[in-house]
Each structure stands twice: as structure tokens, then as C-alpha cells.
Amino acid sequence: MAVEGIGARALRKEDKRFITGKGRYTDDMTMPGMGHAAFVRSPHAHAKVKGIDASAALEMPGVDAVLTGDQLVGDGIGNLICGWMIHSKDGSPMKMGGWRALEPEIVRHVGQAVAVVVADTQAQARDAADAVIVDYEELPAVIDPLAALESGAPQIHPEAEGNLIYDWEIGDEAATNAAFEKAAHVTRMEIHNNRLVPNAMEPRAALAGYDAAEEHYTLYTTSQNPHVARLVLSAFYNVAPENKLRVIAPDVGGGFGSKIYIYPEEMVCLWASKRVGRPVKWVSDRTEAFLTDAHGRDHRSEAELALDADNKILGLRVKTIANLGAYMSLFSSSVPTYLYATLLSGQYDIPAIHANVKTVYTNTTPVDAYRGAGRPEATYLLERIMETAAREVGLSPAEFRRKNFIRTFPHQTPVIMCYDAGDYDATLDAALKAADYDGFAARKAEAASRGKLRGIGLSCYIEACGIAPSAAVGSLGAGVGLWESAEVRVNPVGSIEVLTGSHSHGQGHETTFAQLISERFGLDTSAVSIVHGDTDKVQFGMGTYGSRSGAVGMSAIVKALDKVEAKAKKIAAHLMEASEGDIQIEGGELKVAGTDKKLTFTEVALAAYTAHNLPEGMEPGLKEGAFYDPTNFTFPAGTYVCEVEVDPDTGKTEVVNFVAADDFGNIINPMIVEGQVHGGITQGIGQALLENASYDENGQLLTASYMDYCMPRADDVPSYSLSTHVTACPGNPLGMKGCGEAGAIGSPPAVINAITDAIGDNSLSMPASPEKVWALYHAGVKQAAE
Amino acid sequence: MYETTYHKAGSVAEAASLMANADDGKFLGGGQTLLPTMKQRLAAPSDLVDVTKIADMKGISANGDGVTIGAATTHYEVSTSDLVKQKLPGLASLAGGIGDPAVRHMGTMGGSISNNDPAADYPAALVALGATVVTSKRELVAEDFFTGMFETALEEDEIVVAIKFPGAAASAYAKYPNPASRYAMAGVFVAKASDGSVKVAVTGAGQNGVFRMSAMETALSGNFSPDAVAGIAPDANDLLSDIHGSAAYRANLVTVMAKRAVQKA
User: Fold this and answer.
1) Within-domain flag for A86
2) Best CA proximity match to A18, nearest among A582, A511, A693, A517
3) For tag attachment on chain A, is the N or C end more exposed, with fewer CB atoms within 10 Å?
4) Cβ contacts (< 8 Å) between A709 and chain B: which residues?
5) What is the CATH number of the domain that holds A271?
6) Do A442 and A564 fall within a single domain?
7) Mean pLDDT of all residues belonging to chain A
8) Are residues B87 and B26 located together in one domain of the fold?
9) How many domains is chain A partitioned into structurally?
10) A1 or A71: whose pLDDT is higher?
11) How near does any CA of chain B get to the CA of A326, in Å?
12) Which residues of chain B have pLDDT under 70?
């Protein structure tokens, strides 16, 4: 270790334990006398539960109990909730159906839990779960979101007539319609954003224990936000009061959004631990993960772009139907509204935008935020129609975009967001240069000589990170504030613990956050420990999602550091009989400017705790806390260029070059940022080419294992060419914007724009499976011949 | 996984006797299909009789122009065998493309052909090369051994001991993998025998497992070049269709893979 401050490519402190198999995940935890849970799950997409016969299961070896929804409801456990209120355009509140952690009456998707078995071993619990006999009466199911809105479709929740959850709008409809009336050219498209399964490497897990003497629960769980989990479990599900519930999210192996939410299984383990009288552990298997982890995306949209005679954009009109699945997951309502339609202006000066979003219940797994959450859907829609419009009017896709870029900041879009800073020409220029955009024709000709179809596609994305100003999101319906907290504890000998409300599940906070302290005090990063993920250790915090840990979480640390620094300087000035304004911190020492007087950071820390000689009236100790509430979102943006070669014989697409030029504002650790971009782009290429949650008409998930659900592998992607351009974010002290989701947001349209360029058919939808590409290309060839 | 009892057989006779005494036993030949199936609780054999440690079932030896491969030989061993690479390069290359390194180090040829997954690679090689399957009871030509999807001519207590491959003048395999599972969506093995006759066998695409493409064989016997098969496709009505590819798409893949196999051979 060394002094590695802002901008250093510091190796990740946490990797020693991860790479050597010494990580501590929920499944590594044990409690004395622990039992194991297995869930009895519905094989039907929609069915009445007429009876549950657990008598045979209860006789099996090792079985403690079989618990059902009736018992859960009887014990006063509350329904699972969606924590963001959206109102329809007619002013009515969203129509939320009841969601019980164990369903006693009507199951609404395959895999929904109706009972839980607790036994001595996992194998015993699973054997007994197989022996629980559930009497179902099948009901007609509806899987397709458009079909769910048709009259006569099966009714999924009594609360939501016609399966419509809300019918919401944003923007000025009259102004937008007027823009279309005077348009010289209108581009129209149907755009489908495919449903994805998050697939974190570590499946969800929970270990819950109840201390009867203290009436206190402990829950180890795979959470991105343990305090929010505790809050929801206490306030809404009535499991235990907050002071009687400790939630620990230890090492967590990836989240991508899917571990934000409170799911039935974790709650049932808590409840069962008291009811059965022993700690209860549950670890999801991969099939359960496919069936019950909140899915992502699943939008069907119609988009129209109006241009004037000079190819300047006049307006954008969007109608979207978003499938939320069988229940409203914790933040599901916000994803296709405020996280989606507010980004539809992209990097462009669009005078008028109107978007209408309907969300729908279907008999499928619930859908919620997944890496990017709404912003990939907005970017895909806008960047597909931008590329298409450029082709239609005969402009270079790059020049058409450039013609419409926003160049003055702050810029108020017609859809709430006010962009604070950016330089879209800079990232476009950098990407085009790195991709040798001008040399594409020669590469296409060379590929043709090898029998390959080469195509190139652009995507100029913008997203909103650093969620979020609490009052602003509160006014839009959020049930929580989205600030962050930090506490900086300087120990008596000068080592430092930073307690953060952010949670690291792969992001490398233990390294980047330590770099911040290293920079500020000139200390070795090994002298800094980052503490997170335990509600008994860390003050209330909001957790990690939406690329907020840098812009919001680290800003809270900066505020606390400011207080620590100010107090340390006061102490140093007092001890060295100098003026506070003359104290400078450098290389781990506090120096009096212009003299050779100095104290080490350790000496000042010790002085704070011995308190033998502190300034008059100063409290002992050196520990400060802060809450940081952002004043605006941050707006990372950039340009991605994808180049593909399609094999016309098989339809297989090879991504032969991928260039990303991003503006993330200031960067703490470029290596970690590059890792985030690599992962994000790979997920985006996965969505564009390979991934799709596919249901049959009865609601059976056909892609419920890796035999059928295709995750991107190393040989599916090229080495990426990355660069960053910095416009500092004016809204937070570090000038950071966020980088965690950009890759997944910006890349899918670049890939599809490239393939459609290669095959000459613009109707291609994601995922661009080889068969689809092959069929479209050959249909085009045939048509051209006729 | 359901509880099961594991037995390690030291000889073919002991394996047969262990199986005869089991309630609902399964032979374990590498386990790269069986164990994942058991882990998903889709199979629940009372006993597993491991045949991969039987010395008589291991190893690769020359057999005239051809080779004999013990049933417990791993895919990795087949793919790296100098003898196989020299005599049947198409077979060595096929073995090197099965699954991933972990599968290739555990999975065995006997295990794979006994399972007869319709998307497995080896059946195409055995049929096209005219291999003979030596079991604990008899010898069967490959085409009689594979009887349908996940079906073989094996009896309950019958064990594949070895596979005898005749020599070939040329052999090559080309497959189009399922993007998710990487099993063959269409795998075509082309073999030209020393007498000049050609066999073409297809795996991954057929509703009943491996099948021969006699029209391609005839065309290639006269003109062993990719162009000879360019216009020949199987009847899509006989092919598999699923979320990864329709029968029509698979029919196209068979043609394309046949061309590529001939090109390689």
C-alpha cells in the first residue's frame, strides 16, 4: 500500500480476499442450531390455491415446520410494497395489488412461493418441499403486456382493472403535436426493449436468527442497501421494530439492481426464525434466481421524431407500454416513468417532448430496476430513432447528431431534467477518431471480399446518476429521501475508519473511498478502513444503486472530512501556537506555513483523544459525521461506436470493434472506472445480441437456466477501446458524475445500429439472434432480386 | 440433489454386478450431464456406479489404420492424443471443441455416447467414421447403437467398453453452437474412407438424434468440395425447432456446416 490519492490506478484492496476465496458472503455465515429453508413454489402462472397438505412433509426426517401464507397473514406480517407513488394523468393513484410473501389464495407467476419448509439440512428441506401437496385450480394467464390490456384479458389483481397500473404522461402534449404538424420529415418506429434476467454471480441468500431473550432479530442478507431493507421490514412488513432488527449485508457478489428490493424469501426467513425457534438460512439456487429475482426492461414503444427542413429536431412523441410482471416490486413504478421518460431528450436540443407510459400487470416475474433502470430503455429508443432518421434524410448519423447537440449549460429539457454540464462534441469527436469512422468504407469493402457484411453504429447516450435530491424525488412520489451519510472516525493513533451508507457489491469502495482519505491527509491507504453494510455499525444510509456512491456517497464523506480537517487544524494550531489559517496538511503532517513547525497526523489524533491540551471549550475526540443531499442529478454522457461483421451464411454477429468515449466528470480510480465500463458494455452487448427472458404462452419461463438464457462470455466481445473526457460536475464537491451504468445504457443501440447498417434492414429487434439476422438479411436479398 | 450411493467399479464385471444389485442405478461415466441433472433434482438414481476408473476401459491404441478408444477416455485425452490427431484429425478436433475445459477433463466418450444427447458431438463422428461400439456383451455398428433421442441399443446392465474407429482418408467436423449452452445446433461430420466413399452425419438438428445425409454423401463421392453440398439441405420437417432456432434455420445451418467441414477436411 502507499499514498494513493485521486486519479491513482490503485489496485483494489478487497481483491485479496475475493481472489483467494476468502470473501465472506451470506452463505458463509452460520448461527448455532441453524436450520435450512426450502420454498414450495407454484408451477402455474395463475392459479387458485385451494389447499395445502403438509402432512407427509411434516413426517419426513429433520423437518421442523411447514409454514404457509395463512400463518404469515395471521401473524400480522404485512404485504410487500412498491415505495414510489405514481399518479395517472387523470390524477388517480397507481393501482397496487396485494403481494404476500407466501401466497394463501391466488398465485400470479410461476415460481411464486406458497409455503416454506424448515429442516435440519438443505437436502431435507428440499425433499420435504417436494412432498408438500398443493391443490391448485388453474386460471387463464396472460403473459404479453399488450394482450393484458385487451378487453377480456384475464384479470390479475382486483385492484387494477384491465391490468392497468397507471396511465402516466410527461411533457407538453399540445406543443409536441404542434411540432409534428409543422414537421418537414417524421421518422416513426416501433421499438421493443427485451426482458432481461440480472444474474448476479452470487444468488440471493438470507440467514435470520431470533434472540427470544432480547426479542431481537439478526438478518444476514444479499442487499445493496441494508438500512433501507431494515426500514421496510420494520415499517411496512411489521417483522420487528428497527431497534430490534440488525441487518447485515456482508460481501455481496453483484447486484445490478436486483438486490435493492425486499423479496418474500428474506422476509419469510426472519419471520420463520421466531416461529420455528431456530435460525433459518435460505440460499437461492440458480433456477429460483431466474424465476424470482426482479427482471429488467420489457418495454414496447412507438416513437416518432419530427424534423424541420434543416434536419433540426422539432419534437419527440413516445408511447410506451411497460410490463411490470405479476407484482409491483419496490421501485418498479419509478423505472418506466421518472428514470425513463425524463431522459428522452438525450444529448439533443428538443423543443417539445411528450411521452405516455402505461404499466401493466402480467403473469410473469416482477420487473424492477436493472443496471441503468429506465435510462437504457430511453437511450435505446432515442438512439435507434436518431440513427434511423439520419439514414432517412440522408445525413451522416454523426453529423445529424452533432447538428442537434445541446451546447449551452445549464440546459432545461422539456422533461424535468436540467443538465448542468457536458461537452457532447468532445466525446463524439474522440469516439469517431478512435473508431476511425472515416475509414469505415474501406473496412466494409475489405470485409465484403471475405464474404462478411460489415456495419457501423453510433450511440450518443446521456443518463442521470447521483440519485437524488430528496425534496425533488419526494415531490415526484418517492417514499424515501435519496441523500447519503458518512462518518469519519479518526482513531487515537491516526488510522481512520470511514462508515458509509453506501454499499459495495463489486464496485471497489474499499479502495476508492480510501483514496479520498489518502488524498486529503496524505496517509497510506492501508491506514484507512471502509465500514459498510451493517445497520449496527453504520448510521442510517441509503445504499448503492443508480451510480450514486461516488457523486452522493463520497460527497457525504467529503463533508465529514471537511469537519475532521477543520478540527484537526484547530488542534494543530493550538499545539503549535500558530494561526489556524496557517496550518497546511501535506504528506500526513500538519505544518505551519512558512516555518519548520509540524505535527504528524498521528500526533494530532492522539492529542484529540488524550485531551490534555485542547483549545478552550473543544470536545475531545476526532470523529465527524455528515449527511449529503444532492442539489441535482448528475449527467454522465458519451459516444459509443460499434463495428460488427455479420456472417450472411449463419446470421452470426461478431462485434469486431467497440469504442467508448465517456464523460464521467472527475475520476478517482481510472482502473476501477474502466472495469465498470467493461462490465457495462458487456452487459449491453449481452442485451443486444444474446439475452432474452422468454416465456411460453402458459407463463413458463423457457430460459430458466444457462442452458437457454445466454449470458455474454469473454469470446462474445472484443477488447474495448476506452477514453474519458472530463467536464467536472458543478453540483458536488468532487465534480463526479458516476460510471456504473453507462456501459449498459449506451451500448445496445450502438450494436443494433451497426447490425442494421450491415444487413440493410432496420426492423431488427433485440436480441439480434443469428436466426433473426439471417432471416432479415436473406429476405432483403430476395426482395432486392425481385 | 437427492441422496444417492456412489460405487467405484474396478472391473467391467464388478460394474455389471453392482448395477444388478442396485434399485435404480445409473452408470457414471464422467457425469457431465448426469450430475448437473441430478443437482437440478431432475434425476434421482439410487446408486451411481462409476466406470471411469476401470483400467480396461481407458486409453487409446492403434488398430490397423484406425484407433481403438477406451470408453472411459476423456475428451481431453482424445483431443490431445497424437495417435488420434494423426489418424483421425476430425475426431481430435471435435473432442477439443466439446463443452469447456472442465467438461473435457471429466467427460468420457463412453459416457457421452451412452447418453446420446441429440446435440452431443460424438454421435456424428461415430456414424460418419463407421465406428463400432464394443460393449460388455457385444459389438454394434454406430448406426445400430444410436436408436433415437437419448436412446441407445444398450440394455440396462450393458456397458460401453471401447469404440473402434477404422482409418479414414480425410475427416472433419464443423458445428454451429447454441449460443447459450454451446451444444451443437447443427454439427456435421464428414468422413472420406480409404476407398473414397464418403459419409456425412449430422448432430444437433435432428428430432431423433444423429442422422446421415445421403444426398450429400452421393454428391461428395463424385466431387469432394464445398460446392458439392452447397445446394443440399435436410428436410426441415425432420428437424428440431426451439427458441434458439427454427427447423428452417437449422436446415440452413446443416448445409453451411457441411460446406465448412468439407473445406476443413
Assistant:
1) yes
2) A511
3) C
4) 180
5) 3.90.1170.50
6) no
7) 97
8) no
9) 4
10) A71
11) 23
12) none
Q: Any idea which residue has 448519423 for its cell? A: A397
- Structure confidence at residue B1 (pLDDT): 86
Percent of chain A with pLDDT over 70: 100
DSSP string, A639-653: EEEEEEEE-TTT--E
Which CA distances in Å does A11 have to A2, A15, A682, B42?
A: 11, 8, 22, 44
ipTM summary value: 0.95
Residues A704 and A784 in one domain: yes
Are residues A324 and A363 both part of a single domain?
A: yes
- Is the separation of the CB atoms in A350 and A414 below 8 Å? yes
Query: B180 and B157 in one domain?
Result: no
Query: Which chain A residues touch B176 with a CB distance below 8 Å?
Result: 650, 652
The grid coordinates listed for B172 are 472433419
Residue of chain B nearest A689, judged by CA positions: B179
CATH number of the domain to which B11 belongs: 3.30.43.10
Q: In 3D, which of A631, A634, A625, A622 has the Cα closest to residue A500?
A: A625
Whether the pLDDT of residue A473 is over 60: the answer is: yes
Domains: count for chain B:
3
CA A15 – CA B5 distance, rounded (Å)? 39
Rounded to a whole number of angstroms, the distance from the CA of B185 to the nearest CA of chain A is: 11
Q: What are the chain A neighbours of B37 within 8 Å (beta carbons)? A: none
Of B179, B249, B253, the CB nearest to A690: B179
Whether the pLDDT of residue A537 is over 90: the answer is yes
Question: For residue A459, how many other CB atoms are within 10 A of its CB?
Answer: 32
Contacts A650 to B, Cβ<8 Å = 176, 252-253, 256
A706–B244 CB contact, under 8 Å: no
Q: Smallest CA–CA separation between A772 and chain B, in Å? A: 9
pLDDT at A2: 79
B123 and B38 share a domain? no
Interface test with A, best of B182, B241, B249 (most A CBs within 10 A): B249
* Range of the structural domain that residue B114 is part of: 55-165
Interchain contact, A709 vs B176, CB within 8 Å: no
- Helix, strand, coil shares of chain A, percent, nearest 5, are 35, 25, 40
User: Which residue in A650, A694, A709 is closest to B253 by CB distance?
Assistant: A650
Domain harbouring B243, CATH code: 3.30.390.50
Domain CATH for B98: 3.30.465.10
Whether residue A1 has pLDDT greater than 80: no
Using CA coordinates, name the residue in chain B closest to A286.
B40
- CB atoms near residue A782 (< 10 Å): 9
- Nearest CB among B176, B244, B246 relative to A650 is that of B176
User: Do B109 and B89 share a structural domain?
Assistant: yes
Determine whether the interchain pair B41/A770 forms a contact, defined as Cβ–Cβ distance below 8 Å: no
Give the mutation candidate from A126, A285, A291, A710 for the B interface (greatest B CB count, under 10 A). A710
CA distances from B212 to A561, B128, B251 (A): 74, 8, 13
What are the φ/ψ torsions at residue A28 (nearest 5 degrees)?
-80, -10
Give pLDDT tens digits for A376-386.
999 999 999 99
One domain for residues A206 and A171: no
In 3D space, the residue among A732, A734, A512, A746 whose CA is nearest the CA of residue A634 turns out to be A732
- Among A123, A710, A771, the residue with its CB nearest the CB of B180 is A710
For residue A786, name the pLDDT band (cuts at 50, 70, 90). confident
Residues of A in contact with B249 (CB under 8 A): 651, 770-771, 774-775
Q: Do B243 and A708 touch (CB under 8 A)?
A: yes
User: What average pLDDT does range A528-551 have in this prediction?
Assistant: 95
B246 interaction partners in chain A (CB closer than 8 Å) = 771
Residue A273: strand, helix, or coil: helix
Domain span at residue A708 reads: 420-462+634-786
**Nearest-by-Cβ selection for B249 from A702, A706, A771:** A771
pLDDT, tens only, A636-665: 999 999 999 999 999 999 999 999 999 999
